[in-house]
Amino acid sequence: MAAIYNPASNHPIKVWDVEFRRTPQRTLMARIYQPQGPGPFPTLLDLHGGAWNNKDRLANVPMDEAVAKSGILVVAVDLTLAPEAPYPASVQDANYGVRWLKAKAKEWNGDPSPLGVLGSSSGGHVAQLLAMRPRDPRYNAHPLPEAPKIDATLAYVATRSPISDPYARFLQAEKMKRAEMMQKSKTYFDPWDLVHEGNPQEILDRREAVSLPPMLIMQGGIDDNVIPPIQEKFAATYRAAGGECELEVFEGCEHEWIAHPGPQTDRAHEMVKAFIARQLQALRRAA
After folding, report:
1. Domains (ranges, CATH) in the chain?
2. What DSSP character marks residue 164?
3. What is the CB neighbour count within 10 angstroms for residue 163?
4. Is the pLDDT confidence value at 183 over 90?
5. Are 284 and 2 in contact (CB under 8 A)?
6. Neighbour-count burial of 16, counting CB atoms closer than 10 A to its CB (0-12 exposed, 13-18 middle, 19+ buried)
7. How far apart are CA 39 and CA 41, in angstroms?
8. How many helical (H) and strand (E) elements, i.e. helices and strands, does the chain have?
9. What is the pLDDT of residues 266-285, one digit of tens each?
10. Among 267, 194, 260, 202, which residue's Cα sits nearest to residue 233?
């Protein structure tokens, strides 16, 4: 049964870092945001953005803190960056992260049964692939010897400015003459044809057999990086495939509006909490 969650709660939190996974290049770390109280608390894995090439577990601190204070165990992990290893390395990290967190959550007073994922920008792209292909052998590459039977299925996915169609986003960068952004896509999708294989929109267009957990997409209305029509098409296709997808456009906001304090950032925090509350309530009703 899903843990009881009241999004209006206000818990003190404890924050610390632990080792997540070692790669040939470096040690990936995880930041734990643990609500203080009796628990157990619902559990959320956060996947950072950075155009697959930059950033780390600290990219989404304000959102992670806000959600954790409402009574959710939030764990943000580093992902392999494209210059270290191209697609699907970061998705493999995230898939491992889901299984690892399911195995570890109880140690941190978390309830792993209704585990969800929060992903921003390129982290949203990774989150969508995780949601749709939880048992894909390409993504399940890293074993978890201490819990080999745990799978990477998700209860829900919340995203902010996800790259739902990496090829359409590349064409947008080309249109805007953003050579650096174009190169980041090519560094990640190497060889380049993988931009179609690892493309959430095209996966749905091809009618692949996929999982479709409930999804939230928060999109900036004046985002010229991942433009609103990309999200509108993806949300419609996801729904047509049988999934639940909530799309909310934040008028007057660009790609990374939540990096700046303000009413629209606060609104995004509240929207994520409300979305999670609805999913957990649905799970409790179904139990």
Report:
1. 13-286 (3.40.50.1820)
2. S
3. 31
4. yes
5. yes
6. exposed
7. 5
8. 9, 8
9. 999 999 999 999 999 999 88
10. 202
